[in-house]
Amino acid sequence: MSAVEEQLAATPDAFEKLGDILKNQDHLFACSGSVPIRNEPEAVPDQRPGPDEQRTSRPVTIRWDTATANSPTPEQDACVKLTLPIAPGGNGGVDRLRQHAKPATFGRGGEDVLDESYRKALKIDTDSFCSTFDPYTLGIIDTIAQVLLPSAIDSTTHRSVRAELYKLNVYSGPSGMFKSHVDTPRSTSQFGSLVVCLPLEHEGGQLKVRHKGKEMTYDWSTRQSDPNHAQIQWAAFYSDCEHEILEVTKGDRITLTYNLYAVRGAGRLTGMSKTLDPTHLPLYEAVKTAMDSPRARFDGKGGSIIFWCSHIYAYNHQSESPLPDTLKGVDAVIWEIFQSLGLQPRIAPFVSLEYELEGLQEWYDEKKIPSDGGDALRRWAAERPAPLLEGSFGVYKHPGGYLDETTHYQELYIGKDGWGGKYHNESQVWLNERPSNEELQILFTAYGNEAEAAYHYSHCGILVDVPGTSEIEAAEALAEEVKNMRIELQDTSA
């Protein structure tokens, strides 16, 4: 049993129940849907469907340039179009689409690689084609925003989704496929991908999406004789999900891929207001009950409650941190619930000092700081080393020299010219297991028998500070004093 499991086992039932609920939140990594095709124009085209009405789409038209064809001389028609779904028995121009598409590459080691044993597909870049398909007016982006990037009513996060068209891909039978991989985010604000499968007869080509041992399969294969043939199907998932496209055995699987970005403000949503109310989530009551339990008061001494983020984030960007804007799934839900309870959560990188702690504590216990000791010692003499160190985003690189004394490490960890971290000496409750994913946080030179590069990795967590009884009483006394002053001022002005 791990340290976290031992701790949860010793806590009251409220925290045990909360821990169990959090363990079952791994399914929050993908969503999907379908949009039927209608051939008749809408009776009132400008009227928006109600919340319970099924949205439909007109047939989708794709236009592409022949000037970028693989052949040396463009065709007479500078622009060719394909409308889907096509009539039964017809080809509708799919052959010409394949002719003008290029082999699809994939990223490996920072380079674009063409290897048809790993990925066999065709592509057209966005500067060479356009489409009448719009995921905003069909409500797809609204759905993604609510499920994968939720923002609560009255939330201070104000997040929404921007979808950017990335590629048109064609996977053709009998061997089109893409082996298991994880996409490389195009920026720190990208949180996921949207794949839209257009209505065209094909078999195979199932999309499998995996996260933390859970798997979702999206089978969009269809025949023209199928009653559901004429519909658009889509799936969206987080950027840290592993996914693959199984072999297309027959026909052509045509998809549009969008990169999904978290943006501040209204973004490009279609006018839907934020409707997620965290107080109506099952997790809300579990968190509230746990926070009201005696264990959460830490015997009046104060402490910290930490939730380790379950998804992977590129949070140590040097110039900007994408968090909390790009929080995903249960991470976003926990953040919103903490906020709704007035707990003032913060998100930060945490470095574990479990291996270094023994030496630090021995030095701390034995070191005698003289009265004329100097600022370097007195500045952090009250900071007793602890196994968990909280700091700021951004990789810290030691400016030079080496570290061979505990005083140097203290300066590195918590000094104002170092990483500037903070030890967590107070009591703590961890709501979940620390994940395996981590990011480089501190880089320095250590000295043993010889100088060598050393480093610390960090994990991202959401933290809530629970004040001690004395702090609460002081805050209440100050609030009462301010209230009395206002009353006196009102009486004076009257």
From TrEMBL:
List the PANTHER family hit by this protein, alphabetically.
FE2OG DIOXYGENASE DOMAIN-CONTAINING PROTEIN (PTHR33099), MYND-TYPE DOMAIN-CONTAINING PROTEIN (PTHR33099:SF7)
Keyword terms? Iron, Metal-binding, Oxidoreductase
Q: Which InterPro entries match?
A: Oxoglu/Fe-dep_dioxygenase_dom (IPR005123), Pro_4_hyd_alph_FE2OG_OXY (IPR044862)
Region of interest (Disordered), ranges: 34-57
Q: Which protein family is it in? A: Belongs to the iron/ascorbate-dependent oxidoreductase family.
This chain belongs to the protein called Fe2OG dioxygenase domain-containing protein
What positions does the domain Fe2OG dioxygenase occupy?
157-262
Return one GO MF term.
Answer: oxidoreductase activity
